[in-house]
Design goal:
- The chain is of the alpha+beta class and about 190 residues long.
- It has two domains: about 5-150, Roll (Phage tail proteins - horseshoe like beta roll fold); about 150-185, no CATH class.
- Helices cover about 15% and strands about 35% of the residues.
- The protein has helices at about 5-15, 80-90, 155-165, 175, and strands at about 20-25, 30-35, 40-45, 45-50, 55, 70-75, 95-100, 115-120, 125-130, 135-140.
- Strands 1, 2, 3, 4, 5, 6, 7, 8, 9 and 10 form a ten-stranded mixed β-sheet that branches.
- The protein is elongated.
Length: about 190
């Protein structure tokens, strides 16, 4: 993970700060980019759609242990286009990133390098649609969560073919099980 740049550090420690939270989520239809302001924001070659008030982000934890942590982002008052994307395209296991940035108060432009505070994989979103407004709660888990899932593999021809259909390494193993092999002069 990279460090906070000097310009962003200075802006975040100033008496007056205009922060920005940017998030990107992978979907089956492509990446979705949102930010905590109004209107479109161009950063890093991508256009982030303003959703006004994010609603909230759970505390993002850092631990000394090798441990999977997660974050939850709640988007409230969002446009109907994002609700339809969440319903149709959001899937488990897609990449998610959350950045914290700040605007230069004199020029009103985003300071070049927002800081990546969380990177992980999306979970299934929860949608609360009251008719007038909607909110989406998107959970993301650290990539370390995959370490908690056991990898079940077998030393069989069928299992090896799943990995590489052309590999014949285990093709003759069943015929060797009862084979009598003589060593020496016998």
């Amino acid at each position: 993970m990279r460090n906070i740049t000097g310009a962003l550090d200075t802006a975040l420690q100033a008496d007056r700060v205009r922060p920005a939270i940017l998030a990107s989520f992978g979907t089956s239809g492509g990446d979705v980019f949102v930010w905590s302001g109004v209107g479109d924001l161009l950063w890093n070659g991508d256009t982030y759609q303003g959703v006004g008030n994010f609603g909230g982000i759970t505390m993002i934890q850092e631990t000394e242990q090798v441990q999977a942590t997660g974050a939850q982002l709640i988007l409230s008052g969002i446009p109907s286009t994002l609700v339809s994307i969440a319903l149709q395209s959001m899937q488990q296991g897609r990449p998610a990133q959350i950045y914290v940035g700040a605007f230069d108060l004199t020029t009103g432009t985003l300071i070049v390098d927002p800081y990546l505070v969380f990177e992980g994989l999306t979970d299934v979103p929860e949608i609360d649609d009251t008719g007038d407004t909607a909110s989406i709660s998107i959970s993301a888990e650290s990539r370390l969560v995959k370490l908690e899932t056991p990898l079940v593999r077998r030393y069989t021809d069928l299992d090896q073919k799943l990995r590489d259909p052309m590999d014949k390494g285990f093709e003759f193993v069943p015929s060797l099980q009862d084979k009598q092999i003589l060593f020496g002069g016998g």
